[in-house]
Amino acid sequence: MLPFNDTEPNRYSGMPWMTISLIMVNTVILTWELYLPEVALNGVFWVFGSNPSHLWAREGAGIISVITCMFLHAGIGHLLFNMISLWVFGRRVEDACGAWRYLLYYLLSGTLASLITALAMPHMDVPTIGASGAIFGVMGAYFVLFPGGRIRTLWFFGIIKIRAFWIVLYYLLVQIPPAYESYMRGADYDVAYWAHLGGFFACIFIPLFLRPEAFARYMSDVPV
Fold it and tell me: Which of 15, 74, 136, 155 could form a disulfide with 200, with the two C-beta atoms 3.0–4.6 Å apart?
């Protein structure tokens, strides 16, 4: 199941320029990564990726790494999936927040993703990289603000429209078993499931980032 397009129009603004800017920045940084020698690239990941053991020891880039890690990706496929998800769910969240509030919320989501990972797995000595924690925060915001939104989704060999509530709920639920296994039994995964959960639960703060008109509609139980 691959969501690739939100069918609903914006209410407050036109071009989602902050979402587009984030996609462009991530793409430029990955292009730079691809030209680095492997040793240098691994060094970048170790210094600027969010490593729980480094965070607790105040090593590497320290607390700054919770920001820098969101803009590093392991390859083209990693970037592509994240940026498609950001485009699908970010456009209307940016519309409801305004560009700069949306950026602050995005960075908050990514920061919480890293901090929750560090709390859940404090002894993990592997750098986590990628925008997925921040993007799960954006998905959570969409879940709160637009649960009835219709998302064009690639389902096997066809395209169907699915309510955002069910898509986001599915992606949330599939994070829980491996996160539990990694916490309780020390299972080792290549995916940062705790970062996804931590980023998602940033959505409890999304009302604080809404533009005034959207906040008034949200508090009045009117579609945002």
Answer: 136
End-to-end CA separation in angstroms for the chain: 26
182's tokens = 């990694």
Return the amino acid letter for 66. V
CB 170 within 8 A of CB 196: no
Q: Is the predicted pLDDT of residue 216 greater than 90, yes or no?
A: yes
Pick the CATH number of 2-219 from 1.10.260.40, 1.10.443.10, 1.20.1540.10, 2.40.50.100: 1.20.1540.10
- Residues 140-163: pLDDT tens digits? 999 999 999 999 998 887 889 999
pLDDT at residue 61, rounded to an integer? 62
Distance set, CA 85 to CA 13, 57, 89, 136, 167 (Å): 20, 33, 6, 9, 11
162-196 confidence digits (pLDDT tens):
999 999 999 999 999 988 888 777 667 778 899 99
Q: 5 phi and psi, to 5 degrees?
A: -165, 135
